[in-house]
Amino acid sequence: MDFVSRANSVRLSGLPIIGSLLDLPEKHSWLKFHEYIQQHGPIVQLNIMGQSHILLGNERVWDDLARARGAIYNSRPQSPAASILTQDLHILLMPQGRVLRERRGILSQLLSRSAASQYEPYQWLETYRMVRDIVDDPSEYNEIFDHWSTAMGSRMLYGRAMPKRGGFQAEVMAITRTAEQTVQPGAYLVDTMPWMRRLPEAVAPWKRYLKSMSRRDEAFYYKMWKCTREDLDSGRDVPSWARLCMEDLNNEKSKVSMTEREAVHLIGATYTAFGTTSGNLKSFIFAITRHPEWWPRLTDEMDAAVGDKRLPRLDDLPNLPILRAVVCEIARVWPVTPGGVPHLLTKDDVYQGYHLPAGSVVHLVAWACGREPALYPDPDMFKPERWLRPGFPTYREPLTEYPTLNNMPVFGAGRRQCPGMLVGTRNVCIQAMMLVWACEISRARDAAGEEIVPPAYDFVAGFNVFPRSFKFDLRPRSLERMAMVEAEYEAALAADPMRD
Known about the structure:
This protein has helices at residues 29-40, 59-68, 70-73, 80-86, 98-110, 113-116, 120-136, 141-158, 168-183, 205-234, 241-249, 260-271, 275-290, 295-305, 321-333, 366-369, 421-438, 479-495; strands at 3-6, 9-12, 43-48, 51-56, 343-344, 349-351, 354-356, 361-364, 439-443, 472-476. It is α+β, with helices and mostly antiparallel strands. The longest helix is centred in the middle third of the chain and has 30 residues, at 205-234. It is globular. Residues 1-8 have low confidence and may be disordered. GO terms for molecular function: heme binding; iron ion binding; monooxygenase activity; oxidoreductase activity, acting on paired donors, with incorporation or reduction of molecular oxygen. Its cofactor is heme.
């Protein structure tokens, strides 16, 4: 491979015309990106079919660029395939500009600290349900965790409970999978050869498929929107994002300039983001199964902070630094979006002697950022103690506040940082707290009595990833604790304004 140095940057030219295209794997491209960053430094430029791609593998560098220079780093590259699927209405993929600012402003209000508190009862209710279900049948953990995500999304976005698995859950997960597959780099040739978008559907079956999926997704979004509309018309008093949008659209004094169709897509597309919570939870079980030595530390800490006479509460979290350290270490070692969400550089820039050309696709490679040796010694080792012990670069005080998922690379940085960071962090912590308090998790054993250890990295392919199905053992810590979970669950159901 030909390496060219320009203004101190590392540029991998690759082959004529196609550049480095053939060097990139079809799946888990971030592993190759990490390899380049290890070899050539924290900023690497690739040429892929004439398009400049800049790989960033350093949190400080990305923080500098995304925050101080966010005006030129926070747009999005436009994918023809994703454009067809989303009709250019998905907020995650919108280019920088007035429309994006308005949409993010709406989401920021809906996800503010004061607004987030109203969702807490639903987070606990769905987590009590999750614990009951997984104790009943641990082998169904993938579906149970997916149900938590879709049920919570249904409540927040549409004011609708989803008490049973199946039904809407299957539709949401199908939409989520299609979206993630479509935005994955290299999934469609049209993204590297944009001229292919002009091909007629008769000779472009991929275009027919994407349009059919787009119609499917929009029909589902309108179906859910209609459910909220019916509730509002009938006087059913339950809060939801869709309801707030409807009220704004009908308010002549409102400053919101969206059409109803744009609002339908804004709320509907947000549903797909809830799948990241499910992925985090699967990685939590995976990490504990691979590193069972941390489980007694978690349960001992939980017992000291909470005891066995009541269930955990959110205000117990400051007294659970080990739990937060484990959650942060999982996000570092196995990020749900390891390749990051690509950005678009809209103006030539020079950073620490690196020449970064306008029009480049910029990748914050979360997988590489979490393995920067200077910040994370022994980067490939699962070491939650790095967040808890003085002497590690990641240690911060006070331990009642740190470690925290907030502002980690998993949420991005700058003006495109995930507006759901607070709610997402609470989701993961509430789920982990209840699993530690109520359950005993250990390795499963095979027919010969040997422990089954899941592979170090056997994750599904896609934009967002999680471990493939693996075996583990889960049982209740005691019948008394499960009786308390059951009682709290029934009480939460009785008080639920969304119950049928």
